[in-house]
Amino acid sequence: MEDLKEKAIRSVFAKLCAQATNFLLRVGSLIVFARLLNPEDFGLVGMVTAVTGILSLFKDFGLSTVTVQRATMTDQQTSMLFWLNLLVGGVLGLLSLASAPILVAFYQEPRLFWVTAILSAGFLFNAAGVQHTALLQREMRFTSVAVIEILSLLISSVVGIGMAFAGFGYWALVSWSLVLPAANAAGAWLMTAWVPGAPSRAVGMRSMLRFGGTVTLNLLVVHIVYNLDKVLLGRFWGAEVLGIYGRAYQLLTLPTGNLNEAVGGVAFSALSRVQHDPSLMRSYFLKGYTIVLTLTIPITITFVLFANDIVFLLLGPKWHQATAVLRLMSPIVLGFALINPWGWILWSTGQVGKCLKIALVLAPLVIGGYVAGLPYGPNGVALGFSAMIVVWSFPHIAWCIKGTSISPRDVLLAVGRPFLSGIVAGTAALAVQLCFGQSLPPFARLVLGGLVLCGVYSLMLLWVMGQKPFYSDLILALRKRTAVASMESA
Fold first, then answer.
1. 489 lies in a domain?
2. Which of 418, 267, 398 shows the shortest CA–CA distance to 334?
């Protein structure tokens, strides 16, 4: 188990480094795309992906989760899952193609037909790499997964930006969306060197399909809830408003999405390996939960305090309307950091039915927030979204704690220390901004505020809140593993 702990720490470090690179690539691409393309270009593609993205939830039918979560898996079972994934991918591609005329009629936008038709091929690319990626995750080879993600994003960004420079408009975004899954699948095949066998009847497939189906249904509910805002804005306010709202949401979720993916992917794999040991489950979960909250809180504060400068520097002056949307949606990332990690425990212990019940309760609350804010445009929808997520966080945690070895006191300690540190650090950064910020250009103001925020936050968290031993232990374990790996390679 000590080896698993060190492997998990090393995997988290590798994923965080990779996601940081991923974040820089995505932000860099967004900066270039935002200056070469118009809000309408983003809105057109957003109209398609907000709807066809629902189909993408079925791309693996939850079978990749089965591969990672199960205590034992045979090659025969994995091969059968691969062929099932490929079949599902083909069906989804055909359904996406069939939806093209429906989207044209719904949005009254004829250009959406060929955008939808071409993006349909992405379902086959995704399906071809699902099981290969799951095998890497099961073996906790997250460094390999990180390399694949970075190279795939780099290739797709080069292709998309090249087309944008050439004047292809929204087709640059379409090509980016298509090349990314193709490169991911190719990389996964090369890294695993695994070739699936012929399809055959595998033992235990019925229980796997039931598990995967429940996971997929849960993801479907969550996806509908978190994308209905874009569908409503596109339908009632048009492509330009949707483009502004969508870019603000993308800016908000880029850093936190990468963070949650980095820690969550490793946490799910590690917790699945110790699912029958409540003590280790509690220890591993709380450490991962603490890391996510510790890193998310300063990110949230940064978006609240420096939304104007972030939008101006990353998107440009023509996107100034996204500033208010970005600031109003900022509490969402903190809410996600509070509630999403609980899925690690529920999924790793096979409690996918409980996850589905939670999602079904969450859905009408968030949708009600959208509907209440829709008459007020993107700002109203953003505010309604944020309010519902924050309000829901408390009953969500209480529901998830039940039946686990984690106590309310554990959660309070995990949340309270970074939260109090964030309040003090945010106050200091705001004071500096009010005193000196107005005389500085946007970049200098952002850098100064960020340095003050991070400095005070680190001081409070590590020394005042006594978290220095926790992070020192993580660093020591990482160094120990790195030293062992160097000796073995020598």
1. no
2. 418
**End residue of a domain, out of 203, 236, 261:** 203
User: What would the pLDDT profile of 109-155 be if each residue is shown by its tens digit?
Assistant: 888 889 888 888 888 888 888 888 888 877 777 778 888 888 998 99
Q: Is the pLDDT score of 418 beyond 90?
A: yes
Q: For 8-63, write each residue's pLDDT tens digit.
A: 666 667 777 777 787 788 878 878 888 888 888 888 888 887 667 777 767 777 77
Domain, as residue range, for 196? 37-203
Assigned domain for 22 exists: no
- What's the predicted TM-score (pTM) here? 0.72
Instruction: Give the end of a domain, one of 178, 203, 228.
Output: 203
| Each residue's pLDDT tens digit, 428-438 | 999 998 887 77
Residue 478: pLDDT band with limits 50, 70, 90 = low
Average pLDDT, the chain: 84
pLDDT tens digits, residue range 324-358?
999 999 999 999 999 999 988 888 888 888 989 99
Residue 430 belongs to some domain of the structure: yes
- Evaluate if residue 484 carries a pLDDT over 60: no
d(CA 476, CA 465): 20
